[in-house]
């Protein structure tokens, strides 16, 4: 069954030696959307038609996910490779810059890309992923370390794959329904779509390889020099009931971002743009106008 709605098109862009799959709708300035774990382009299903009225919205499958290429080497999932992918996608689509939107891992990539190529980001929108310097600081607190237990579990070889695959990828749907405040935000069809994407050959190991690079990644260094002041209009949207990332990780972000706004959404989980799409879309619209 196709997940594409009327007016949505799909395509591939060749970048950094691989092919990345995307879904797109609309014309105009580029709005590029980057999903998180364990998701794929489908996470933006409530945003694509909304913003296609004014922009060319492109929601990609990150490398290793769903219908994008899945390099086998663990090293292929380092942040430096992920940011090169985004540079190539923007240029491959015929643009010089974009409005960059990222959630979870997509947010981590968006932060890193904005620092590496500020000239290619007109505006930055990050959902439920703290500024890298704040995340690095947070990992020194027992409170956040406890919430981030899964990052350490994912370092193990093979065992995480075996456990996630068991019972028809039950843990994938559990990740959404267990964390969500409003369980009705995810239909059975939605959960099956996420399980099907994770079950594609090579996808699960590729998805976990993001975590297997996390402690080598420049992303999680608390180097004041690296994270200088970012001079880009930046909006952070944060579901307050995120069980994986504490709200306190957002405090003090303005020390690193000069033009910064934050919108907290109460009674909402980590899956903010899927659980409260109307409010997320409204905050994005207000920021973009």
From TrEMBL:
<dbReference type="InterPro" id="IPR000639">
    <property type="entry name" value="Epox_hydrolase-like"/>
</dbReference>
<dbReference type="InterPro" id="IPR029058">
    <property type="entry name" value="AB_hydrolase_fold"/>
</dbReference>
<dbReference type="GO" id="GO:0004301">
    <property type="term" value="F:epoxide hydrolase activity"/>
</dbReference>
<feature type="domain" description="AB hydrolase-1">
    <location>
        <begin position="30"/>
        <end position="276"/>
    </location>
</feature>
<dbReference type="Pfam" id="PF00561">
    <property type="entry name" value="Abhydrolase_1"/>
</dbReference>
<keyword id="KW-0378">Hydrolase</keyword>
<protein>
    <submittedName>
        <fullName>Soluble epoxide hydrolase</fullName>
        <ecNumber>3.3.2.10</ecNumber>
    </submittedName>
</protein>
<dbReference type="InterPro" id="IPR000073">
    <property type="entry name" value="AB_hydrolase_1"/>
</dbReference>
